[in-house]
Amino acid sequence: MIAVVQRVSESSVKIDGEIKGEIGHGLLVLLGIEDEDGEEDIQWLTRKIANMRIFEDENEVMNRSLLDVGGDLLLISQFTLHASTKKGNRPSYIKAAKPDVAIPLYERFITKMEGEIGKSIETGEFGADMKVGLVNDGPVTIIVDTKDKK
């Protein structure tokens, strides 16, 4: 799994012109799932995101986590994070999991993430054409790949 984690002051996702999810202060997480991903990746990544110290403390040092600040989370599925650009100019998405594998993992990720932060999260809709808006706070953007955990 690959996650692009962005600290935001606000973020929203629209589908067919209607707001599907929106948050204030917190994290926008773009999540890419591949075939080899499983429960261990979900456990590790949700814990990492909930506890990542990327919010400022009283000394303006990034020393607080999403849990510490009580922030919100908006999760968006994004298969293009697994794009391969090694050959030619058209990215290949061969590593991205197909819906029959990705959807159950995405849904499990949502449940586990809500458990980690102790509240509901906002989401997009798997496979939908989504318009994501955000105000990146900092800017702070971090890429986390579960294949790099060892």
UniProtKB/TrEMBL annotation:
Task: Give the UniProt subcellular location, in the record's own words.
Answer: Cytoplasm
Q: Which ranges belong to the motif Gly-cisPro motif, important for rejection of L-amino acids?
A: 138-139
Does the record's keyword annotation contain Oxidoreductase?
Answer: no
**Reactions catalysed:** a D-aminoacyl-tRNA + H2O = a tRNA + a D-alpha-amino acid + H(+); glycyl-tRNA(Ala) + H2O = tRNA(Ala) + glycine + H(+)
What Gene Ontology terms for biological process does this UniProt record contain? D-amino acid catabolic process
Q: Which InterPro entries does the record match to this protein? A: Daa-tRNA_deacyls_DTD, DTD-like_sf
Q: Per its UniProt entry, what is the enzyme's top EC class, as one word?
A: hydrolase
Q: What Gene Ontology molecular function terms does this protein carry?
A: D-tyrosyl-tRNA(Tyr) deacylase activity; Gly-tRNA(Ala) deacylase activity; Ser(Gly)-tRNA(Ala) hydrolase activity; tRNA binding
In terms of Pfam families, this protein maps to: Tyr_Deacylase
E.C. numbers: 3.1.1.96, 3.1.1.-
**Entry keyword set:** Cytoplasm, Hydrolase, RNA-binding, tRNA-binding
Query: What coarse category fits the chief subcellular location reported for this protein?
Result: cytoplasm
Offer a single GO CC term for the protein. Answer: cytoplasm
Q: State the similarity comment.
A: Belongs to the DTD family.
Please state what the annotation says regarding this protein's domains.
A Gly-cisPro motif from one monomer fits into the active site of the other monomer to allow specific chiral rejection of L-amino acids.
Q: What does this protein do?
A: An aminoacyl-tRNA editing enzyme that deacylates mischarged D-aminoacyl-tRNAs. Also deacylates mischarged glycyl-tRNA(Ala), protecting cells against glycine mischarging by AlaRS. Acts via tRNA-based rather than protein-based catalysis; rejects L-amino acids rather than detecting D-amino acids in the active site. By recycling D-aminoacyl-tRNA to D-amino acids and free tRNA molecules, this enzyme counteracts the toxicity associated with the formation of D-aminoacyl-tRNA entities in vivo and helps enforce protein L-homochirality.
Subunit (UniProt) = Homodimer.
For this entry, the protein name equals D-aminoacyl-tRNA deacylase
What is the organism of origin for this protein? Fulvivirga marina
